[in-house]
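User: Hand in any protein.

Assistant:
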Amino acid sequence: MADSTKKYTHFNVTFPREYVAHIETNRPEKLNSFYQPMWLELRTILDTLSHSPDVRALILSGAGPRAFTAGLDVKAASTSLFAKDESLDGARVAARLRRDVLEFQDCVTALERCEKPVIVVMHGISFGLGIDLATAADIRICARDVRFSVKEVDIGLAADVGSLSRLPKVVGHFGWVKEVCLSAREFGAEEAARVGFVNSVHESKEAAIQAGLDLAVSIASKSPVAVQGTKELLNWSRDHSVQDGLRYTGVWNSAALQTKDISAALFSGIEKRTPTFEKL
């Protein structure tokens, strides 16, 4: 079992089942809004769990009853990301901002880059960065009380850490994506399910987290070679042609097919028992 004693400043990390990690954003008094130390810490957590042989599936949720996340902590950002240095010319200001934005993007991309499947469970307010995190995850589950918004135009900027790039590929309904991104209007659980943004809707936060946990346990019971390969190949194929995807799959599986997990899975099916797989 992964180390359950590791403490983080802004997140609770627990291991509720074998091979399952639960990351909980722990800033409920600020509606789990993010500022720079938080997204840096989240990247550290995800990179650590990605490489842990004791973890095969992850859940990400938010503490408290009111919000998955309200998005960016605008007050904190105004004194860091948006602070101006009058001694610098425009090109130098742009160079610094570009580095900051790219680092922020990389912290969100850590969900997608994580070798293990990431299930995000959303409830209450899920604005701005909440959509960025959700679209970088593999599976999205929500409570019926959720309120979504691609909020960035309301604070004077285009969403810049993932939503505009990933949401159209998650949903596949470009007109709807443009509408919600250009208007920043809120939408709820039923609409999110209808357009395919979320996989399932549950009556409460607790029920949604339980559903996420059940799914994580199911995924964690499979061959880690097969699961990690499936995530890698799906993400690759999303961004490449069918022929490129097939070719990469062939190269990937030329190594992965040598695993002992295949015979373990096949024989367990014949013998009608639950298979077990070595750590990866």
